[in-house]
C-alpha cells in the first residue's frame, strides 16, 4: 500500500506511514536481541559481553551504509513529490553505484583491520576471541545490509512502508529460528549466532530487491539512466554523504564510549550490552517516526506545501512527546525485569549496573525523541549539514563528559549521565536554528 503524504489528514497520514517503519525496526531489534538473549542465557556472561560490544561496532560501520541510503531516500522523496520520474531514476542509478562501491570498500577495510579495531576498543582478553569470530562472520553479510536498506529507503520514499516491514518480518522470524538451531542444536557458539543473522539478512535483502524489480516496473532503471551527469552526482553526494556522516558520527561517539565502558571490565560490559539493547528497543519507535516525518516533510517540500509542513511539525512534536512520556515510565518501572531476560538472577552486580543505566537514560527519552525530529526535518529541507552539527553537539558532549565524569567519584555513572545532557544541548541548538531560519523567511517575505 502506497501512502500519499502530500494530501489528506496530516497526523493520520504520518501515523499510517510510520507504523510499518516502527514495527519493522522493532522486529529488527528483536532479531538483534535474539542473538544477545540466546548467547547470554546459553553461552554465558563473557559471550554476552562479546556480542554486545560487537553490536556497537557493527552498528557504527553499518550506519555508514544506512546513512547513505537514508540520505538518498530523502532526495528520492523530494523527486517523487515533484513528480519528476526521469530524474528520480537517474538519482536511483547514481545512488546504487555510489553506495554499492562504498560497501565493497568498507567490507575490505573490516577484514583487513579487525585486529586493530579490537585493540582500539580495549577489548578484554576473556572476550577477544569470541568478539573477533562474531564480527568476521557478521561483516561477511554487509552487502545484504546494503541491498535491504537501499531498496527499503526507495520504497519508503515513494510512500510504501509496508513491504519493507514484511521482508524484515521474514528475516526476524528466520533469524530467531536459526539462532536456536545453530547455538543450541549445533553448539556453534557466537559464530552460530552471527551466521544466523547473516543468512537471514541475505534472504531479506535479495527478496526486497526482486520485489522492487518485478512489482514496481515503472521505476526500473534503464540504460539511459546510467548516463549520470555531474549535477546528479553532486546532489546525491550532498544528501547521502552528509546523512552518512551524521549517522557515523552518532555511532562513532557511541563506539568511543563503548571503549571507555570496556575499561571497567567484563561485568560492566555485560550490563551495558543488555541495557543498551533495551534502551534502543524503547526509543526505536520514535526514531522511526522521525524518519517517517522526514519523508513527510521531503514529499511536501518537493510539492511546494510549506503550510502543510508547519502543521506536520506541530503535530509530530505532540505525538513524540506523548509517546516518550509513556515509554520513559515503562522502562523506569520495568528496568530490572527487562534486564533479567538477558542476565541470570544471581548476577546481582551486573543487574544493578544495568538498572542504574536504564533509570538515568529512560527518564530523558523526550530529549532524543525531539532530536530525531530535528534530524528528519533538516535532512528533508535540504539542510543535512545541520543534522551533522546537532549530532556532533550531542555525541561530542557525550564523549567528553563521559571521559571527564567517569574519572571522578561518579565512576561509570558519569558515563550514563553524559547521554541526556548531550541530547538536551543538541535539542536547544536545533530549536534555535529552526527559529532563526523561520525569522529569516518571514523577513524575506515582508521585503
UniProtKB/TrEMBL annotation:
GO terms for cellular component: plasma membrane. The chain crosses the membrane at residues 57-80, 92-114, 134-151, 163-184, 190-211, 232-249, 255-276, 316-335, 355-376, 388-409, 415-435. GO terms for molecular function: antiporter activity; xenobiotic transmembrane transporter activity. One of its GO terms (biological process) is monoatomic ion transport. The keyword Transport applies. Signal peptide: none annotated. Its main location: membrane. Keywords: Antiport, Cell membrane, Ion transport, Membrane, Transmembrane, Transmembrane helix, Transport. It is a multi-pass membrane protein. It is found in: Cell membrane. It comes from the Bacteria. Pfam families: MatE. Multidrug efflux pump. PANTHER family: FMN_FAD EXPORTER YEEO-RELATED, MULTIDRUG RESISTANCE PROTEIN NORM-RELATED. Belongs to the multi antimicrobial extrusion (MATE) (TC 2.A.66.1) family. This is Probable multidrug resistance protein NorM. It comes from Mediterraneibacter hominis.
Amino acid at each position: 500500500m502506497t501512502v500519499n503524504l502530500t494530501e489528506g489528514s496530516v497526523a493520520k497520514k504520518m501515523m499510517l506511514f510510520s507504523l510499518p517503519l516502527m514495527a519493522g525496526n522493532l522486529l529488527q531489534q528483536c532479531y538483534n536481541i535474539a542473538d544477545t538473549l540466546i548467547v547470554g542465557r546459553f553461552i554465558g556472561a563473557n559471550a554476552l559481553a562479546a556480542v554486545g560490544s560487537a553490536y556497537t561496532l557493527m552498528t557504527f560501520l553499518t550506519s555508514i551504509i544506512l546513512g547513505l541510503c537514508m540520505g538518498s531516500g530523502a532526495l528520492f522523496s523530494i523527486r517523487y513529490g515533484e513528480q519528476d520520474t526521469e530524474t528520480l531514476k537517474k538519482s536511483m542509478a547514481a545512488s546504487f553505484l555510489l553506495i554499492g562501491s562504498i560497501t565493497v570498500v568498507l567490507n575490505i577495510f573490516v577484514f583487513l583491520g579487525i585486529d586493530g579495531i579490537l585493540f582500539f576498543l580495549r577489548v578484554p582478553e576473556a572476550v577477544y576471541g569470541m568478539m573477533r569470530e562474531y564480527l568476521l562472520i557478521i561483516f561477511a553479510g554487509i552487502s545484504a545490509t546494503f541491498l535491504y536498506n537501499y531498496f527499503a529507503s526507495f520504497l519508503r520514499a515513494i510512500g510504501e512502508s509496508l513491504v519493507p516491514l514484511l521482508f524484515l518480518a521474514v528475516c526476524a522470524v528466520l533469524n530467531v529460528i536459526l539462532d536456536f538451531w545453530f547455538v543450541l542444536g549445533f553448539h556453534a557458539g557466537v559464530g552460530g549466532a552471527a551466521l544466523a543473522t547473516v543468512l537471514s539478512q541475505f534472504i531479506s535483502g535479495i527478496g526486497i530487491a526482486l520485489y522492487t524489480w518485478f512489482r514496481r516496473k515503472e521505476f526500473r532503471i534503464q540504460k539511459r539512466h546510467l548516463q549520470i551527469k555531474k549535477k546528479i552526482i553532486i546532489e546525491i553526494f550532498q544528501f547521502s554523504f552528509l546523512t552518512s556522516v551524521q549517522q557515523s558520527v552518532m555511532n562513532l561517539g557511541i563506539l568511543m564510549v563503548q571503549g571507555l565502558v570496556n575499561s571497567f571490565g567484563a561485568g560492566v560490559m555485560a550490563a551495558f550490552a543488555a541495557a543498551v539493547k533495551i534502551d534502543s528497543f524503547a526509543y526505536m519507535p520514535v526514531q522511526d517516526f522521525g524518519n517517517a516525518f522526514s519523508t513527510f516533510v521531503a514529499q511536501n517540500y518537493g510539492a511546494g506545501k510549506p503550510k502543510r509542513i508547519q502543521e506536520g511539525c506541530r503535530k509530530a512534536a505532540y505525538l513524540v512527546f506523548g509517546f516518550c512520556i509513556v515509554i520513559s515510565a515503562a522502562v523506569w518501572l520495568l528496568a530490572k525485569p527487562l534486564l533479567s531476560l538477558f542476565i541470570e538472577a544471581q548476577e546481582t552486580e551486573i543487574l544493578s549496573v544495568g538498572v542504574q543505566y536504564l533509570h538515568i537514560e529512560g527518564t530523558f527519552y523526550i530529549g532524543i525523541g525531539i532530536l530525531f525530529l530535528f534530524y528528519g526535518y533538516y535532512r528533508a529541507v535540504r539542510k543535512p549539514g545541520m543534522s551533522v552539527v546537532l549530532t556532533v553537539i550531542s555525541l561530542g558532549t557525550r564523549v567528553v563528559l563521559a571521559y571527564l565524569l567517569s574519572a571522578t567519584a561518579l565512576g561509570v555513572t558519569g558515563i550514563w549521565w553524559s547521554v541526556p545532557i548531550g541530547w538536551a544541548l543538541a535539542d536547544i541548538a536545533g530549536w534555535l536554528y529552526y527559529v532563526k531560519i523561520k525569522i529569516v523567511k518571514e523577513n524575506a517575505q515582508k521585503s
